[in-house]
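Protocol step 4 of 5: obtain the predicted structure for the target chain.
Materials: sequence only (see below). No template structures provided, no constraints applied. The aim of this step is simply to have a reference model before the mutagenesis design in step 5. Sequence pasted as it appears in the construct record:
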Amino acid sequence: MSLTDIARRLRVSTSTVYRKLDQFSFKEHFDKLQRVMFCD
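Step 4 output (structure tokens):
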């Protein structure tokens, strides 16, 4: 799902979605791999 799709669903600007996602800190776990890997 793209930032534009998320923005449309939430009825906010793409910039708002980007700013909010930038506030999160994602912890990476390198000891496990995902079952499905997706590249956009």
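Step 4 remarks: The chain has two helices and no strands. The mean pLDDT is 84.
Proceed to step 5.
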